[in-house]
Specification:
This protein is mostly helical. About 65% of the residues lie in helices and about 0% in strands.
Amino acid sequence: MWLALSTTAFRFVKTQNANELFGGVFGAARFPVTAFPVPIRTFLTFVLPVAFVTTVPAQAMTDTLTPGLALASPLVAALLFTLTRLFWRKAVASHTSASS
C-alpha cells in the first residue's frame, strides 16, 4: 500500500496530504477489524487492506482466523502485489527527470 501511494509521486509533485491520509487510515489498524461495522470491516480488509497488516496475522496466531479469510488472504495479497507492481512499472516507464 505504501509503495502504491509513493508511486503517485512520479505523477504528482505534492503528495504530503496523501501520506497524512494514509497515516490516518492506517491508524484504524490499531484496533481489531471486528470492532468496526461490516461495511467498514470489508473496506479495511479488501479495498484498503490495512486489516491484512494487523488483524489477519493476529487472528492466525490466536487460531481465530476463519477458513474463508484464510483462503482469501493470500489471493488478495497476490492480486494487490501484482497491481502495485504494474502500477510501479508504468510510473517508472513514463517518468522523465527534471534535468532531461
